[in-house]
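Re: the 145-residue chain
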Amino acid sequence: MKASAKGHITPLPEFVPIGSFTYSVNDYGDPFMSWETKAMLDAKSKQQANSDGGLQPDLGRRRELLEAFPLDALRMVGTMSKGSKSSALVSSPDGLVSRIVVGNYLGQNYGQVMSISEEKIELIEVVPDGLGAWIQRPASLAVVE
């Protein structure tokens, strides 16, 4: 029995070495970074590129209360003066009346108040031009009686 039962073992297959892959963050990006973080970093780098000479609103600035509403939804309801400083009273659609001084922001287009008179508030808005840049345009908010 021992003499007749000779088995045959097949030789092991020849292993072909596979080339190694070197991951480079510069070429492919960080695989553990979310798409929101990537978009924020891209926007920040684009902002730095535009800040070299182009006009751009301060996107890192904390937004004020009246920037949540479009400019045509706000109403100027009056003015107040104390010495040489004047301020305006602006009513928002939610029924609140806010006191505005020169330098405050109004509306959704980064509108900064430049001057306040008894008749109107004049401001400069910074809006996109559709080509990736920003332009300034004047706007005003007149008193409603």
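The mean pLDDT is 84.
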